[in-house]
Amino acid sequence: MFKPEQVRVAQRGWLELMNNQYFSEALINVDGEEVRVAYDIHDASRVIVRRMNGDYVCDAIWNGNKQAAIPVNAMQDAMEKRRIRRLKLNDDHRREIEAEGRPVLESKPVQSFSEFLGTPEPVPVEKPFFFLETDRDEYLRKNGTHHK
């Protein structure tokens, strides 16, 4: 019935699909061309190869797999990826739980920034300096003293 398809490029009679390599002599006729590869998600031993317009080319047989000793079907591949994702999620939860169990570092409150740095606080200037007499008069008016 329904088989998922992927687009691949045929090279010297070989096709690669999900780290499996498939061979057929008829693939030499479509060498270097993009072809549609239909595969069964439960059986990785053979794939159906069609041209991009839908014309049947051949059935390619699994052979020469470089990754595993047996062909890996799509279901096994998906289950392995799901297992890896679940393990990673489990590790993330474990790290979060362990972080919640660690005590928070206690520290005494710092009174002022200068105490934190260890330098004495600056001594306020008792008598401000003014460049202009108008600035001096305005300062005296704001402070509530109108004496000159």
Give a quick summary of the entry.
By secondary structure, this protein is of the alpha+beta class. It has helices at about 75-100, 115, 135-140; strands at about 5-10, 15, 20-25, 35-40, 45-50, 55-60. The protein is built from three helices and six strands; from the N terminus they run ββββββααα.
Name a few traits of the molecule:
148 residues, six-stranded antiparallel beta sheet, alpha+beta, elongated
Q: Beta-strand percentage?
A: 15-25%
- Number-wise, the strands total 6
Q: Biggest sheet: strands, sense, closure?
A: 6 strands, antiparallel
Element order: H for helix, E for strand = EEEEEEHHH
**Terminal-residue CA separation:** 103 Å
Structural class, by secondary structure, is alpha+beta
What is the 3D shape?
elongated
Give me the side-by-side strand order of the main sheet: 1-4-5-6-3-2
The overall average pLDDT, rounded, is 83
Percent helix range = 25-40%
* Uncertain segments: none
Task: Provide a count of the helices.
Answer: 3
Radius of gyration: 39 Å
Molecular structure report:
With 148 residues, the protein is of the alpha+beta class. It has a domain at 1-101. 29% of the residues lie in helices and 22% in strands. It has a 6-stranded antiparallel beta sheet, with no helix packed on it. The longest helix is centred in the middle third of the chain and has 28 residues, at 74-101.
Task: Itemize the secondary structure elements and their pairings.
Layout: E1 5-9, E2 14-17, E3 20-23, E4 34-39, E5 46-51, E6 56-62, H1 74-101, H2 113-117, H3 133-142
Antiparallel strand pairs: 1-4, 2-3, 3-6, 4-5, 5-6
